[in-house]
Each structure stands twice: as structure tokens, then as C-alpha cells.
Design goal:
This protein has about 625 residues and is α/β, with parallel strands linked by helices. It folds into three domains: about 270 residues, Divalent-metal-dependent TIM barrel enzymes (TIM Barrel, Alpha-Beta Barrel); about 140 residues, 2,3-Dihydroxybiphenyl 1,2-Dioxygenase, domain 1, CATH 3.10.180.10; about 190 residues, 2,3-Dihydroxybiphenyl 1,2-Dioxygenase, domain 1, CATH 3.10.180.10. About 35% of the residues lie in helices and about 25% in strands. The strands form three sheets. Strands 17, 18, 19, 20, 21, 22, 23, 24 and 25 form a nine-stranded mixed sheet that branches. An eight-stranded parallel barrel has the order 1-2-3-4-5-6-7-8, surrounded by six helices. Helix 4 links the parallel strand 3 and strand 4. The longest helix has 22 residues. The two termini are about 50 Å apart. The relative contact order is 0.08.
């Protein structure tokens, strides 16, 4: 499988784009004409630069408004084509994309267009070049790959072929199975793009909101299954027009791009095992069953503050590491690790970010297979020196440069607490607050990082994404995307901040990067839990009384029930399946906080309607500068 990407997909000048594309592991590149025109090198120099990076030019594009033009415009289009043929030969590529005509001067007619392409094919053949025809979803006469294929078929020239683009087919909801009837050798290149489902004009949607396969909502897998059934064996190329990508890191966007193609074809081959498509070998997406632990990095003083808070929430120090300054705090099925080592990665993380939840341990079916798949998809493995008797816990780098560890039940990893830690005798029993598990982990990041980490999680793990939600902060919007497994034992919320005035943006700015901003613990009886926490000195985030007056009016609750909620500062939501109760801790540090939730009768949301009131309360309570972090 050869992978390619159009230069228009990423930011930077042509030299920067090519360096990023090559570093990400692509085989080829589509040269978008504007990128070439903006570069100050000759075509020969550009072609040499591409080859010096180990790349090939898979396509030169676009050539517009060609077929069906009346005279004298028709003669001019052929003159233009000859000039582009000259340029292609100097660049060292043999394929040019012609997109369907949008000119108001163009004339319709399949046979007229076929005749134009037949003549163009003759001219291309004399130079050893090929021409691919693509139906734009907004083309004046041709906006469907079926009509484009009919023109190519009638042109009946070996140097004229079809170019398929997933966006143009899927945006118009064209039946992808019609692709299966097209001979694979008549498809010259396949371009891929996904997009969120937005009801807007096609051209604007295409030019601003495309994203990588797997990042949007279009059935790109179904499209590619149909393409694979034709026997097509050429390059798979990304053509992404996205405002966010144009301002992002060319390196990270390129890595995302190749990850998306590899993950896509891995899915296609597993769904269509009879199709012989060479893809990198890797385990299938990994089943994950929850969070085994969360690890904080801290210094000794702030670790004492964190320990006091955990004790107040019903956690007990259950064990200490045999050779390191690391302690294990436990309640129910929740494991919180506090690392105060003076060297190693945790210490480095503390120096940069302060006290933070820098590492997550996930429970997976197979830890080694998880790292193998992650590496095949471009993730960065993580290792650090081990002390005597310590396990080699498989790990990769995650959000904000943190670490994701993997624990499975099939190896010694299942005994990590027994092997590496010494239990503390006489740990207080019966003092917990009824917290039983980690309900979800909320990671806050800059908005432009969200698609990266969405693709990261969904391509490595057997998870799905829920629709994006806008969370209203008094200072702006925060975009929130949930990733979860089928049974809800793993729930991650990705929160993208667009400005630092929001609570999420403030957290990123003050913590120097993306990180876990809050942990949500699950209780089966939130009223009993909050009652116990109050006895231990826990003070919940204070919610405006106006919220409860509105809640009573909206849901028609009895005053006694509203008084219970108000008395404990518990927020409430419900959907057609069940009810949700949530209460928050005060802010710690620069915006980190804990949440306690109770889900009843299958409620599967996250209390999104309550977010504006929670954020307003948190902003009122932000500590003055100079107070301790945690």
C-alpha cells in the first residue's frame, strides 16, 4: 500500500511540507499548484527536492474548467494543458488531475466531454503522461463519480482514467457500491478525506471542514471497501482542506494523516479478508476495560496536600513502593499513585507542569500487543530505567507528553501492586466514602489538538466517539468529545479550549500544556457519599441557588428533593434512559478538580447541560495567585 498526501493538507512552505511528509513515512506527495507557484525554486529543483526526501510525486493538481468548453475557450484549454504537461515533465510526474468543469460557459453532454478527453489523452500519450478525471460534488454538469466514469469509459483511451475522492462521493450520499463495477486499472488514484456532518453548502464544507479518515462522520470505510473490491492497487492519497490544519504543526498533521490511512486500511482488510491489500502488520484494535490507575507527579510538600485531600475523599494509603518515593492510595476499585521521586520522568513532568496527573494506566487484553499496534500507527513508545525487581510495564507517550501504561491479566503485570509495592498494615477499614471506580477521565487540550488525540484513541483501542458537544464557558466555547468503549468501563472526555480566558484555557496556560484536568469517581449512592465526605471535612463546589430554582421548575420536582440537592450542591440531569447526579470538589492548583457522579438506569451522558453553571461556580472560586497549587 503506497500512501500519499496533498501539499494543501498541511501548513508551511513547500520545503517544510515535504520534510514533514517524508518524516511521517509517506511514500508520495500530490503537488498542489498553488504550493508550487508560491515556491521560488524551478520545477526541476522541486522535483529533485521531492526525490531527495525519498518521495515520489503521485499527482499534479488541479487543472480546472477543461471539458465541454465552446470555442474559442476550448482551444485555449488545450493550450493550457500543454503548458501543464511541460511543467509535469520538469517536475518528474506523469499524472495530472482534471476536476469537473464549474464554468458557466461550459456545455453539457457526456459524448462532448468524452471527445475532449480522448483528444487530451492523445496529447498526453505523446509525452508519456496520464490524465485523471474527478467529479467535483459541485460540478456544473458532472458532480457524480458515475457520470465521470461514463465519460472516461467513452473516451476509451489508456491515458485517461478516473480519480475517486471520498468526500465528493460521500458528501452527495452517492451509493458507494456503484464503485465496485469500475475496473481497478481504470482508477488512476484514490483521494481520501472525512468530514463532520454539517448541513452547509458543499463547496464551503469541502474547503474548510475536511479532516482525516476516522476524524469525521462520513462512511469512509464503506467507500474504501468498495474501492478495494475493484482490484485497485495504486496510491491512497489524502486531500484535506481544513482551516485548523493550515494553522497547525505540519509534523503532527502529517503523522495524523499517515496514521489515518494505515488504520483505515487495517479496518478494510479485516472486514474484507479476501482482498489482497498489503498493509503494515499489527494486532487488531485493542479491547480496553477501564482505568487501572492514575499517577500524580508532585514534590513532597504538595504531595502532603494531595494526600490530605485524598484522605478527605475517603482514600487510604494502601501501599508504598519498595524502592521509590511512590505511594498507592486506594478506595473501591480506584488506584491513585503519588510519585515524589527526585529523578526520572515523573520528576521532569513535575518541574514543567507542577503537580499533575501525568500518567494513566489502562487495563487491556494484551499489553504488548497494545504497544505493537500503537507503534505501527506512529505512537511514540515510552521506556525509562527500571530498578531492581521492577516490572517492564509497556507504555507509550500520550496527551501533553504524558504516559499511558498498559496492564493486562495474562502476565505478571496483573501482580504489579504485589510485586512492586509493600502493603501498609492497619490501613483504616470501613472509612471509605463509597467511591467504587473511575467513571471518566477528562483531558484538556488546545482545540487544534483534539482531532489528533481523537484519532489516536479510536485507532489504537476498541472505542467509539460520541458527537461533539459545545460547552459554554462565560468566556467562550469549549469543544468536548467523548471516547468510550462499548460497556462504558472506559470513558475519556477530550476538551478543546480555543482561548485562555475559559477555565480550560486557563488550566492549559498555567499548567504549561495539555493534561488531565479532572477525574470523575463513581458512587452508587451520591447522597450517602457526599454526607460521608462532609463528615471528613470535604467542601463541595458551591452552586448558585438560582440553579436549583430553575431545576425545580424544569423537572417539576418536589421541594424536598430540590432541598436535598441544594444542601449537598449536587447537580442533576436526566435523559430518556436514566438520571445523573454530580458533585464537584473545589478547584485545586490552576483548575484541576475532582467530580463524583452517580448514574441511574442506564444514563450514558456527562451532564452537559450543567457545565455552564459548574464552570461559573469554579470561576468564582479560583484561588488568588500565590496560593499553593495542590
Amino acid at each position: 500500500m503506497k500512501t500519499s498526501i496533498a501539499t494543501v493538507s498541511i501548513s508551511g512552505d513547500l520545503r517544510e511540507k515535504l520534510a514533514a511528509i517524508a518524516a511521517a513515512g509517506f511514500d508520495g506527495v500530490e503537488i498542489f499548484e498553488n504550493d508550487f507557484l508560491a515556491y521560488d525554486g524551478t520545477p526541476e529543483e522541486v522535483g529533485r527536492m521531492v526525490r531527495d526526501h525519498g518521495l515520489e510525486i503521485t499527482l499534479f493538481q488541479p487543472f480546472r474548467d477543461f471539458e465541454g468548453m465552446p470555442e474559442p475557450q476550448r482551444a485555449r484549454t488545450f493550450d493550457r494543458a500543454e503548458r501543464k504537461f511541460d511543467l509535469m515533465q520538469e517536475l518528474g510526474t506523469d499524472l495530472m488531475l482534471v476536476c469537473s468543469n464549474v464554468s458557466p460557459l461550459s456545455l453539457g453532454g457526456i459524448d462532448r466531454a468524452a471527445a475532449d478527453f480522448r483528444e487530451l489523452g492523445e496529447r498526453a500519450a505523446k509525452r508519456g503522461l496520464r490524465v485523471g478525471y474527478e467529479a467535483l460534488a459541485w460540478g456544473r454538469h458532472i458532480n457524480d463519480h458515475r457520470d465521470a466514469w461514463e465519460i472516461v469509459r467513452r473516451a476509451d483511451h489508456p491515458n485517461i482514467g478516473l480519480i475517486l475522492d471520498s468526500f465528493h462521493t460521500l458528501a452527495r450520499k452517492t451509493d458507494v457500491n456503484t464503485i465496485r463495477a469500475i475496473p481497478g486499472d481504470r482508477i488512476f488514484i484514490v483521494q481520501l478525506a472525512d468530514a463532520p456532518l454539517i448541513d452547509m453548502e458543499l463547496l464551503y464544507w469541502s474547503r474548510h471542514f475536511r479532516n482525516m479518515p476516522g476524524e469525521g462522520d462520513l462512511p469512509v470505510v464503506d467507500f474504501m471497501r468498495a474501492v478495494a473490491a475493484t482490484g485497485y492497487s495504486g496510491p491512497l492519497s489524502l486531500e484535506i482542506f481544513n482551516d485548523q490544519f493550515r494553522g497547525g504543526s505540519p509534523k503532527s498533521i502529517s503523522i495524523d494523516g499517515r496514521r489515518s490511512l494505515v488504520a483505515l486500511m487495517d479496518q478494510v482488510v479485516r472486514l474484507e479478508p479476501q482482498i489482497a491489500i498489503p498493509v503494515p502488520e499489527m494486532p487488531e484494535r485493542i479491547a480496553v476495560s477501564g482505568v487501572e490507575f492514575i499517577e500524580f507527579a508532585a514534590d513532597e510538600g504538595e504531595a502532603e496536600e494531595l494526600a490530605a485531600l485524598l484522605s478527605m475523599m475517603g482514600f487510604a494509603e494502601a501501599a508504598r513502593h519498595k524502592s521509590k518515593d511512590v505511594s498507592l492510595w486506594r478506595q473501591g476499585g480506584i488506584n491513585i499513585v503519588v510519585n515524589t521521586e527526585k529523578e526520572g520522568f515523573a520528576h521532569s513532568s513535575y518541574l514543567v507542569h507542577g503537580t499533575s496527573a501525568y500518567a494513566i494506566g489502562l487495563k487491556v487484553d494484551d499489553a504488548k500487543a497494545t504497544v505493537a499496534r500503537a507503534k505501527a500507527l506512529g505512537a511514540e513508545p515510552f521506556e525509562q530505567p527500571r530498578g531492581p525487581g521492577e516490572l517492564a510495564i509497556p507504555a507509550i507517550r500520550g496527551v501533553g507528553g504524558g504516559v499511558i501504561y498498559f496492564i493486562d491479566a495474562k502476565s505478571e503485570l496483573a501482580r504489579v501492586w504485589e510485586i512492586e509495592f509493600e502493603e501498609i498494615p492497619d490501613t483504616a477499614a470501613g472509612e471509605d466514602a463509597g467511591l467504587i471506580s473511575i467513571d471518566h477521565v477528562a483531558q484538556t487540550m488546545n482545540y487544534e489538538e483534539m482531532l489528533t488525540w481523537l484519532l489516536f484513541y479510536t485507532s489504537i483501542f476498541r472505542t467509539r466517539k460520541l458527537p461533539m458537544v459545545d460547552v459554554v464557558d462565560p468566556a467562550g466555547l469549549v469543544r468536548s468529545q467523548v471516547i468510550e468503549n462499548d460497556d462504558g468501563t472506559l470513558r475519556l472526555t477530550l476538551n478543546g479550549a480555543e482561548n485562555r480566558k475559559t477555565l480550560a484555557g486557563h488550566f492549559i496556560a498555567e499548567s504549561f500544556g495539555s493534561s488531565v484536568q479532572h477525574l470523575a469517581f463513581r458512587s452508587d449512592d451520591i447522597f450517602a457519599t457526599v454526607g460521608t465526605l462532609r463528615e471528613k471535612g470535604f467542601l463541595p463546589l458551591e452552586i448558585s441557588p438560582n440553579y436549583y430554582d430553575d431545576l425545580e421548575a424544569r423537572f417539576g420536582f418536589e421541594p424536598e428533593f430540590i432541598d436535598r440537592l441544594r444542601g449537598h450542591n449536587i447537580l442533576y440531569d436526566r435523559d430518556d434512559r436514566g438520571e445523573y447526579f454530580q458533585v464537584y470538589s473545589a478547584n485545586y492548583g490552576e483548575g484541576f478538580f475532582f467530580e463524583i457522579v452517580e448514574r441511574r438506569n442506564g444514563y450514558n451522558g456527562y451532564g452537559a447541560p450543567n457545565a455552564p453553571f459548574r464552570i461559573a461556580a469554579q470561576k468564582r472560586a479560583i484561588r488568588p495567585r500565590g496560593m499553593p497549587r495542590i
